[in-house]
Amino acid sequence: MDETRFKTEFGKLSQRDFSRLSQFIYENFGIFLPDKKHYLLQNRLIPRLRELGFSSYGQYVDYVLNQGTESEEVFEMMNVVSTNKTEFFREKEHFTLLQQKLLPDFYGENIRVWSAGCSSGEEVYSLAMVLAEEKEAGHIPDFFIYGNDISKRILHKAIQAIYPYKEVESIPFAYRKKYLLRSKNKENPTIRIVPELRAHTRFLWENLTGNIETLPYDFQFVFCRNTLIYFDRETQNKVVTRLLKHLKPGGYLIVGHSESLLHQLPPGVKVIQPTVYQKIKKS
Ligand SMILES: C[S@@+](CC[C@H](N)C(=O)[O-])C[C@H]1O[C@@H](n2cnc3c(N)ncnc32)[C@H](O)[C@@H]1O
Protein backbone atom coordinates (compact mmCIF):
# COMPACT_ATOMS: atom_id res chain seq x y z
CA MET A 1 0.00 0.00 0.00
CA ASP A 2 1.23 3.51 -0.76
CA GLU A 3 1.53 4.86 2.80
CA THR A 4 2.54 8.36 1.66
CA ARG A 5 -1.03 9.09 0.61
CA PHE A 6 -2.01 9.07 4.28
CA LYS A 7 0.45 11.86 5.10
CA THR A 8 -1.02 15.18 6.18
CA GLU A 9 0.58 18.61 6.48
CA PHE A 10 1.65 17.46 9.98
CA GLY A 11 3.15 14.16 8.86
CA LYS A 12 1.58 11.02 10.30
CA LEU A 13 0.13 9.99 13.62
CA SER A 14 2.58 7.24 14.59
CA GLN A 15 1.35 3.86 15.83
CA ARG A 16 2.79 4.67 19.25
CA ASP A 17 0.94 8.01 19.47
CA PHE A 18 -2.28 6.43 18.20
CA SER A 19 -2.01 3.79 20.94
CA ARG A 20 -1.31 6.40 23.63
CA LEU A 21 -4.29 8.48 22.57
CA SER A 22 -6.70 5.59 22.09
CA GLN A 23 -5.77 4.15 25.48
CA PHE A 24 -6.36 7.53 27.14
CA ILE A 25 -9.74 7.91 25.41
CA TYR A 26 -10.75 4.39 26.36
CA GLU A 27 -9.72 4.73 30.01
CA ASN A 28 -11.40 8.06 30.56
CA PHE A 29 -14.39 8.02 28.23
CA GLY A 30 -15.01 4.33 27.54
CA ILE A 31 -14.78 4.83 23.77
CA PHE A 32 -12.84 2.07 22.09
CA LEU A 33 -10.93 3.08 18.94
CA PRO A 34 -9.80 0.01 16.99
CA ASP A 35 -6.67 0.16 14.81
CA LYS A 36 -8.80 0.70 11.71
CA LYS A 37 -9.73 4.15 13.13
CA HIS A 38 -6.08 5.25 13.04
CA TYR A 39 -6.32 7.37 9.89
CA LEU A 40 -9.75 8.67 10.79
CA LEU A 41 -8.35 9.99 14.08
CA GLN A 42 -5.31 11.40 12.29
CA ASN A 43 -7.58 13.37 9.94
CA ARG A 44 -9.99 14.53 12.57
CA LEU A 45 -7.17 15.98 14.67
CA ILE A 46 -5.90 18.24 11.88
CA PRO A 47 -8.04 21.27 12.90
CA ARG A 48 -6.81 20.97 16.52
CA LEU A 49 -3.13 20.98 15.45
CA ARG A 50 -3.78 23.94 13.18
CA GLU A 51 -5.56 25.92 15.85
CA LEU A 52 -2.88 25.29 18.47
CA GLY A 53 0.01 25.87 16.06
CA PHE A 54 1.72 22.47 16.47
CA SER A 55 3.88 21.14 13.68
CA SER A 56 3.57 17.40 14.38
CA TYR A 57 1.13 14.89 15.86
CA GLY A 58 3.69 13.88 18.45
CA GLN A 59 3.74 17.42 19.88
CA TYR A 60 -0.04 17.47 20.08
CA VAL A 61 -0.29 14.07 21.75
CA ASP A 62 2.33 15.05 24.38
CA TYR A 63 0.43 18.26 25.01
CA VAL A 64 -3.06 16.82 25.31
CA LEU A 65 -1.98 13.92 27.54
CA ASN A 66 -0.39 16.38 29.94
CA GLN A 67 -3.67 18.23 30.41
CA GLY A 68 -6.12 17.00 33.06
CA THR A 69 -9.05 14.88 31.88
CA GLU A 70 -11.34 17.82 32.65
CA SER A 71 -9.29 20.26 30.58
CA GLU A 72 -10.60 22.32 27.67
CA GLU A 73 -8.31 20.63 25.15
CA VAL A 74 -9.31 17.12 26.16
CA PHE A 75 -12.92 18.09 25.55
CA GLU A 76 -12.02 19.76 22.26
CA MET A 77 -10.39 16.49 21.27
CA MET A 78 -13.46 14.49 22.31
CA ASN A 79 -15.56 16.82 20.17
CA VAL A 80 -13.70 15.65 17.10
CA VAL A 81 -13.46 12.00 18.14
CA SER A 82 -17.15 11.31 18.83
CA THR A 83 -19.67 10.42 16.15
CA ASN A 84 -22.73 12.57 16.50
CA LYS A 85 -24.99 11.19 13.78
CA THR A 86 -28.64 11.57 14.75
CA GLU A 87 -31.99 12.69 13.32
CA PHE A 88 -35.52 13.55 14.40
CA PHE A 89 -37.65 10.47 15.13
CA ARG A 90 -34.73 8.14 14.45
CA GLU A 91 -35.91 4.52 14.81
CA LYS A 92 -39.45 5.83 14.90
CA GLU A 93 -41.04 2.59 16.17
CA HIS A 94 -39.69 3.54 19.61
CA PHE A 95 -41.75 6.72 19.60
CA THR A 96 -44.91 4.86 18.58
CA LEU A 97 -44.27 2.26 21.28
CA LEU A 98 -43.68 4.98 23.86
CA GLN A 99 -46.92 6.75 23.05
CA GLN A 100 -49.17 3.72 22.61
CA LYS A 101 -47.83 1.05 24.97
CA LEU A 102 -45.36 2.38 27.55
CA LEU A 103 -46.58 5.83 28.51
CA PRO A 104 -50.08 4.65 29.61
CA ASP A 105 -48.35 3.00 32.65
CA PHE A 106 -47.64 6.52 33.89
CA TYR A 107 -50.75 8.45 32.91
CA GLY A 108 -51.43 11.12 35.53
CA GLU A 109 -47.72 11.48 36.46
CA ASN A 110 -45.27 14.23 35.59
CA ILE A 111 -43.02 12.51 33.08
CA ARG A 112 -39.22 12.72 33.22
CA VAL A 113 -37.08 11.36 30.40
CA TRP A 114 -33.31 11.15 30.02
CA SER A 115 -31.72 11.08 26.58
CA ALA A 116 -28.27 9.68 27.39
CA GLY A 117 -25.81 10.59 24.60
CA CYS A 118 -28.23 13.11 23.12
CA SER A 119 -25.94 14.55 20.42
CA SER A 120 -27.40 17.72 18.84
CA GLY A 121 -30.81 17.34 20.50
CA GLU A 122 -33.02 15.82 17.79
CA GLU A 123 -33.91 12.87 20.05
CA VAL A 124 -34.77 15.21 22.93
CA TYR A 125 -37.04 17.40 20.80
CA SER A 126 -38.71 14.38 19.15
CA LEU A 127 -39.58 13.12 22.64
CA ALA A 128 -40.75 16.60 23.61
CA MET A 129 -43.15 16.72 20.64
CA VAL A 130 -44.68 13.36 21.55
CA LEU A 131 -45.04 14.29 25.21
CA ALA A 132 -46.48 17.72 24.40
CA GLU A 133 -49.22 15.91 22.45
CA GLU A 134 -49.86 13.66 25.43
CA LYS A 135 -50.06 16.66 27.72
CA GLU A 136 -52.51 18.35 25.38
CA ALA A 137 -54.61 15.17 25.34
CA GLY A 138 -54.79 15.39 29.15
CA HIS A 139 -52.92 12.11 29.75
CA ILE A 140 -50.01 13.67 31.66
CA PRO A 141 -49.87 16.91 33.66
CA ASP A 142 -46.37 17.86 32.51
CA PHE A 143 -43.01 16.55 31.30
CA PHE A 144 -39.31 17.34 31.34
CA ILE A 145 -36.47 15.94 29.25
CA TYR A 146 -32.77 15.92 30.12
CA GLY A 147 -30.09 15.31 27.52
CA ASN A 148 -26.39 14.76 28.19
CA ASP A 149 -23.33 14.43 25.99
CA ILE A 150 -19.56 14.64 26.28
CA SER A 151 -19.23 16.98 23.35
CA LYS A 152 -19.64 20.64 24.29
CA ARG A 153 -19.81 21.67 20.66
CA ILE A 154 -22.75 19.36 19.99
CA LEU A 155 -24.55 20.42 23.18
CA HIS A 156 -24.30 24.02 22.07
CA LYS A 157 -26.16 23.01 18.90
CA ALA A 158 -28.77 21.21 20.98
CA ILE A 159 -29.39 24.27 23.14
CA GLN A 160 -29.64 26.52 20.08
CA ALA A 161 -32.20 24.10 18.58
CA ILE A 162 -31.62 25.41 15.06
CA TYR A 163 -31.42 22.79 12.29
CA PRO A 164 -31.11 22.75 8.50
CA TYR A 165 -34.54 22.77 6.87
CA LYS A 166 -34.00 19.38 5.24
CA GLU A 167 -34.14 17.76 8.69
CA VAL A 168 -37.92 18.35 8.88
CA GLU A 169 -38.49 15.45 6.52
CA SER A 170 -38.40 12.93 9.37
CA ILE A 171 -40.79 14.96 11.56
CA PRO A 172 -44.46 13.90 11.31
CA PHE A 173 -46.36 16.40 9.21
CA ALA A 174 -48.85 17.27 11.96
CA TYR A 175 -46.05 18.34 14.31
CA ARG A 176 -44.23 20.65 11.89
CA LYS A 177 -46.60 23.61 12.10
CA LYS A 178 -47.05 23.27 15.83
CA TYR A 179 -43.50 22.85 17.01
CA LEU A 180 -41.20 24.43 14.40
CA LEU A 181 -40.37 27.99 13.42
CA ARG A 182 -39.07 28.59 9.88
CA SER A 183 -36.28 31.00 9.06
CA LYS A 184 -36.85 33.58 6.34
CA ASN A 185 -33.38 33.02 4.89
CA LYS A 186 -34.00 31.46 1.46
CA GLU A 187 -30.35 30.62 0.76
CA ASN A 188 -29.80 28.73 3.97
CA PRO A 189 -33.24 27.71 5.22
CA THR A 190 -33.37 26.53 8.81
CA ILE A 191 -35.95 25.57 11.40
CA ARG A 192 -35.97 26.23 15.11
CA ILE A 193 -37.83 24.39 17.84
CA VAL A 194 -40.50 26.62 19.42
CA PRO A 195 -39.57 28.11 22.82
CA GLU A 196 -42.58 26.44 24.51
CA LEU A 197 -41.02 23.06 23.76
CA ARG A 198 -37.46 24.12 24.54
CA ALA A 199 -38.63 25.18 27.98
CA HIS A 200 -39.23 21.51 28.80
CA THR A 201 -35.62 20.50 28.15
CA ARG A 202 -32.21 20.78 29.75
CA PHE A 203 -28.82 19.82 28.34
CA LEU A 204 -25.91 18.74 30.50
CA TRP A 205 -22.26 18.23 29.78
CA GLU A 206 -21.75 14.85 31.46
CA ASN A 207 -19.63 11.81 30.71
CA LEU A 208 -21.63 8.56 30.83
CA THR A 209 -18.58 6.65 32.02
CA GLY A 210 -17.86 9.11 34.83
CA ASN A 211 -19.89 9.95 37.92
CA ILE A 212 -23.21 11.56 37.12
CA GLU A 213 -24.77 13.02 40.20
CA THR A 214 -26.62 15.93 38.69
CA LEU A 215 -29.48 13.88 37.27
CA PRO A 216 -32.66 12.73 39.05
CA TYR A 217 -33.19 9.11 40.14
CA ASP A 218 -36.84 8.82 39.22
CA PHE A 219 -36.97 8.82 35.42
CA GLN A 220 -39.86 6.89 33.89
CA PHE A 221 -37.84 6.57 30.66
CA VAL A 222 -34.18 6.51 29.73
CA PHE A 223 -33.33 6.54 26.03
CA CYS A 224 -29.71 5.54 25.41
CA ARG A 225 -29.64 4.82 21.72
CA ASN A 226 -26.70 4.46 19.36
CA THR A 227 -24.23 5.39 22.08
CA LEU A 228 -23.55 2.09 23.90
CA ILE A 229 -22.27 0.77 20.59
CA TYR A 230 -19.04 2.80 21.01
CA PHE A 231 -18.21 1.16 24.34
CA ASP A 232 -16.72 -2.26 24.93
CA ARG A 233 -18.74 -4.89 26.83
CA GLU A 234 -17.36 -4.01 30.26
CA THR A 235 -18.04 -0.29 29.86
CA GLN A 236 -21.50 -1.03 28.44
CA ASN A 237 -22.33 -3.02 31.58
CA LYS A 238 -21.10 -0.21 33.79
CA VAL A 239 -23.10 2.41 31.90
CA VAL A 240 -26.28 0.30 31.76
CA THR A 241 -26.09 -0.29 35.54
CA ARG A 242 -25.83 3.46 36.02
CA LEU A 243 -28.76 4.19 33.70
CA LEU A 244 -30.93 1.65 35.52
CA LYS A 245 -30.13 3.31 38.85
CA HIS A 246 -31.68 6.50 37.53
CA LEU A 247 -34.93 4.76 36.52
CA LYS A 248 -37.84 4.49 38.90
CA PRO A 249 -39.19 0.95 39.43
CA GLY A 250 -41.45 0.11 36.49
CA GLY A 251 -39.55 2.60 34.28
CA TYR A 252 -38.18 1.71 30.85
CA LEU A 253 -34.70 1.71 29.30
CA ILE A 254 -34.68 1.96 25.51
CA VAL A 255 -31.50 1.22 23.54
CA GLY A 256 -30.71 1.46 19.82
CA HIS A 257 -31.80 -1.22 17.37
CA SER A 258 -28.27 -2.54 16.98
CA GLU A 259 -27.54 -2.58 20.71
CA SER A 260 -29.59 -5.35 22.26
CA LEU A 261 -28.66 -6.18 25.87
CA LEU A 262 -30.08 -9.71 25.63
CA HIS A 263 -26.64 -11.34 25.86
CA GLN A 264 -25.77 -9.41 29.03
CA LEU A 265 -29.10 -8.84 30.72
CA PRO A 266 -28.57 -7.10 34.06
CA PRO A 267 -30.45 -8.41 37.11
CA GLY A 268 -33.77 -6.79 38.01
CA VAL A 269 -34.74 -6.16 34.42
CA LYS A 270 -37.55 -7.55 32.28
CA VAL A 271 -37.29 -7.71 28.48
CA ILE A 272 -40.25 -6.07 26.75
CA GLN A 273 -38.67 -6.47 23.32
CA PRO A 274 -35.03 -6.78 22.24
CA THR A 275 -34.32 -3.05 22.63
CA VAL A 276 -36.78 -2.20 25.42
CA TYR A 277 -36.25 -3.17 29.08
CA GLN A 278 -38.30 -2.55 32.20
CA LYS A 279 -36.88 -2.12 35.69
CA ILE A 280 -38.80 -4.63 37.78
CA LYS A 281 -40.89 -3.22 40.63
CA LYS A 282 -40.01 -4.67 44.02
CA SER A 283 -43.01 -6.53 45.42
C1 LIG B 1 -24.42 8.56 17.45
S1 LIG B 1 -24.85 9.73 18.66
C2 LIG B 1 -26.49 9.14 19.09
C3 LIG B 1 -27.47 10.28 19.31
C4 LIG B 1 -28.90 9.84 19.64
N1 LIG B 1 -28.98 9.16 20.90
C5 LIG B 1 -29.49 9.00 18.53
O1 LIG B 1 -29.74 7.82 18.71
O2 LIG B 1 -29.72 9.54 17.45
C6 LIG B 1 -23.87 9.23 20.06
C7 LIG B 1 -23.58 10.37 21.03
O3 LIG B 1 -23.03 9.83 22.23
C8 LIG B 1 -22.06 10.75 22.71
N2 LIG B 1 -21.16 10.05 23.62
C9 LIG B 1 -20.18 9.15 23.29
N3 LIG B 1 -19.54 8.76 24.40
C10 LIG B 1 -20.11 9.43 25.44
C11 LIG B 1 -19.85 9.44 26.84
N4 LIG B 1 -18.88 8.72 27.39
N5 LIG B 1 -20.64 10.24 27.61
C12 LIG B 1 -21.61 11.01 27.07
N6 LIG B 1 -21.88 11.03 25.74
C13 LIG B 1 -21.14 10.25 24.94
C14 LIG B 1 -21.39 11.26 21.45
O4 LIG B 1 -20.74 12.50 21.67
C15 LIG B 1 -22.57 11.36 20.47
O5 LIG B 1 -23.12 12.65 20.43
Structure report:
The structure is a single chain. The chain is of the alpha/beta class. The chain has two domains: 79 residues, Chemotaxis receptor methyltransferase CheR, N-terminal domain (Chemotaxis Receptor Methyltransferase Cher, domain 1, Orthogonal Bundle), CATH 1.10.155; 151 residues, Vaccinia Virus protein VP39 (Rossmann fold), CATH 3.40.50. Helix content is 38%, strand content 18%. The protein contains eleven helices and ten strands. The strands form two sheets. Strands 6-2-1-7-8-10-9 form a seven-stranded mixed β-sheet. A three-stranded antiparallel β-sheet has the order 3-5-4. Strand 7, helix 11 and strand 8 form a beta-alpha-beta unit. The relative contact order is 0.12. The mean pLDDT is 92. The protein binds S-adenosylmethionine (SAM).
The count of DSSP E runs of length 2 or more, i.e. the number of strands, is: 10
CATH topology heading of the largest domain:
Rossmann fold
Main beta sheet: strand number and arrangement? 7 strands, mixed
- Could you say which small molecules are bound to this protein? S-adenosylmethionine
The chain-level structural class is: alpha/beta
CATH superfamily of the largest domain: Vaccinia Virus protein VP39
Q: Do you know the CATH architecture of the largest domain?
A: 3-Layer(aba) Sandwich
- Averaging pLDDT over every residue, what do you get? 92
| Assembly type | single chain
Neighbour order of strands in the largest sheet: 6-2-1-7-8-10-9
Shape: globular
| Proportion of residues in extended strands | 15-25%
Question: What's the N-to-C terminus distance?
Answer: 63 Å
Helix-strand pattern: HHHHHHEHEHEHEEHEEHEEE
Evaluate the radius of gyration: 21 Å
CATH class of the largest domain: Alpha Beta
As for the number of domains, it is 2
Number of helical runs?
Answer: 11
Low-confidence stretches: none
Q: Give helix % range.
A: 25-40%
